[in-house]
Amino acid sequence: MKTILISEGDPTSINYELLVSAFPLLLSLGKRHRIYLIRGPHNLTVPSLPILTKPSAAPGFYSLPWSDSKKSRNFTLGKPSVTSGRMAYDSLLAAMDWQTELGADLITLPLSKEWVGKAGVKGFRGHTETLAEYYKRPTFMMMSGEKLNVIPLTTHVPLKDVVKELKRFSWSELSKALARSQFLKNPKIAYLGLNPHAGEGGKIGDEESTILAGGVKVLRKAKFSVEGPLSADSAFLPGAKPYDLYLAGYHDQGLIPFKLLEGKKGVNITLGLNFTRLSPDHGTAFDIAGKGVADPTGLISCLERLNGDERKINS
Questions:
Q1: Strands lying side by side in the sheet with 149-152
Q2: In this structure, what CATH number is given to the domain that contains residue 131?
Q3: What is the DSSP string of 66-105?
Q4: Would you say residue 308 lies in a domain?
Q5: Do 285 and 294 touch, CB atoms closer than 8 A?
Q6: Model pLDDT for residues 246-270, shown as the tens digit of each residue
């Protein structure tokens, strides 16, 4: 029996609609596992979801509030605020505290970096970075779908800072995380050139030879199969040689093709932790919250991964 925590993210987003849509699956999985929705004090709920004051020893799908405050906030779907941003962040912290206590796996539902920042949380860059800070270990974002797996070597940083971030990137820690991952087994890896046409032998930048090549040596020394640098504008085209894992230089270089090709089934897996953390690959979608059109495919994909129904990469 697994213990699975779900952090609620921003309560004014589509997250509660996703939970309602995925409720039959959550109930089914709750027959074999303990599943807890970690939520703050507010008016939005999942109907028929039992509310606990402490974790249960029995399997089931439960709501586990992180606050004993009697003051409940009233939120409106699609109307984010400083309060909802702060509650999303506090719910994430509570989920990590519960994870440490229970040894659970974790699904994080989307929150808004903008509204977390407006709520006064300094330096918040995203789930992946917050997990790294909390657990005091390097973490790596792997976007994983039915066919593609992509790791951006730099995550939520401005484009002007990418080269600086790559220079201090820990390839040895990435190597360890890849070796430990349950979702990867002897992967064939390709890395993308940072510059157009992978630098054209230094004519359009030399980061491929001065930064990336050195990191790739670390992976090859650890017995990983790595090819590249590939020109990023053609690496994902139909007919291009397929790889089990692509290493992208920066966020959009990897995530744009990933989201275009994988659609709503993609999930975000955090490598480097000693438990499984997953998240849907979409955002808060405030613009459609409350309209009854939110698609739960991403959340369902996360639940299927934790339940072992999705394939692992074998080569």
A1: 60-65, 34-39, 3-7, 105-108, 277-280, 267-271, 140-144, 149-152, 245-248, 188-192, 225-230
A2: 3.40.718.10
A3: S---S--B---TT---HHHHHHHHHHHHHHHHHHHHHT-E
A4: no
A5: yes
A6: 999 999 999 999 999 998 889 999 9
Report the 10 Å Cβ neighbour count for 226: 19
Q: 151-172, pLDDT tens digit by residue? A: 999 998 999 999 999 999 999 9
**Residue environment code for 117-142, b if the CB has 16+ CB neighbours within 10 A, otherwise e:** bebebeebebbbbbbbebbeebbbbb
Contact 229, 198 (CB under 8 A): yes
51 close to 44: Cβ distance less than 8 angstroms = no
> Alpha-carbon distance 267 to 300, whole Å?
10
**Cβ neighbours around 31 below 10 Å, total:** 9
Of 91, 110, 137, which closes a domain? 137
Supply the pTM of this predicted model: 0.89
Specify if 280 maps to a domain. Answer: no
